[in-house]
Amino acid sequence: MLPDHCRRCGSSSNRVDTAKMIMTSHIFHRLRSFVLGCAAALVLMASGSPLQAQTVAVMVNGEPITNYDIEQRSKLNFLTTRKKPARQDIINELIDEKVKVKEGKKFGVEPTSSDVDQSYAQMGSRMRMSADQLDKTLEGQGIRPDTLKARLKAEIVWTSLVRGRFKGSLQVGEKDVAAAAQAAGNEKLETEAFEYQMRPVVLIVPKGSAPSLFEARRKEAEALRNRVQTCEEANAVFKSLQNATIRTVVTKTSADLPAVLRDILDKTPIGHLTAPEQTRQGIEMVALCGRKPTTIDTPKKREIRDKMYVEKYEARSKSYLQEVRKAAMIEYR
Predict the structure, then answer these.
(1) Model confidence over 195-233: pLDDT tens digits?
(2) 35 and 125 in a common domain
(3) What is the span of the domain harbouring residue 110?
(4) How many separate helices (H) and strands (E) can be counted in the chain?
(5) How far apart, in Å, do the first and last CA atoms of the chain sit?
(6) Which of 172, 237, 280, 316 is most exposed, with minimal Cβ within 10 Å?
């Protein structure tokens, strides 16, 4: 496994991932609708019970949005923004979710509960929480976890639809990048870029170990840095050590890596190890096995390309949603 600074350097060449990251960052400002069947809603309305909040407020293509849904979405929006959202804004968000999911079914895009649970767990991980901890955080504010899961489901569906149906029109070519750079007054795009070949290495420290053990392994790592001069030596040394491992070669370009890590790798001689870093696995380093110039995107070109892709994606998503919503049957109660 790469050290933390290297794990964060996953390739951003996949424009879809970029769009998904942008869309996911807005999820904390929205809430999923808790969908009741029409029959169940009618029973509640007739019962005169304290659950009157679950009466239907809007019907979207035959599916209800209840006052309970609106209340839940409002709670989450307030939790994340500390601002009281307008009721109609909440209703519009819930309507958007309904039409997105219905459009997905039309094209056979229906995430499984496992897909949604995985996305939910990943969100918790980014917040440094387990799925259970995220559940408890939401429940502590009176918000059902299923509301957020449904919101995630709608976004998974919509991202798949937009990228699948409009893939060709979302592509950003070299001429597009050059024109955008010139318009922005930044014509010098061909700055030097490299391709790095790296082998992550780990001196394993068991979970829960005393700080003294981490320090001992760090000193061991520093000694190995002085000893290892080639990747072949690194392979032999770490395979012979107890409680140590060396990973397979990872190849990244300058555009894939954050500036801090690029600077570290540029200052590391070929065949040598980067400075040790403490992680959950133990003490980790990277053996730099190769560094060569490349014509693949420079960091600046990648930045421009990603920005243009996101702009295209968001524009297409907005127009597509308007079309789908216009065709929907929406009835206010």
Answers:
(1) 999 999 999 999 999 999 999 999 999 999 999 999 999
(2) yes
(3) 31-171+314-332
(4) 14, 8
(5) 55
(6) 280
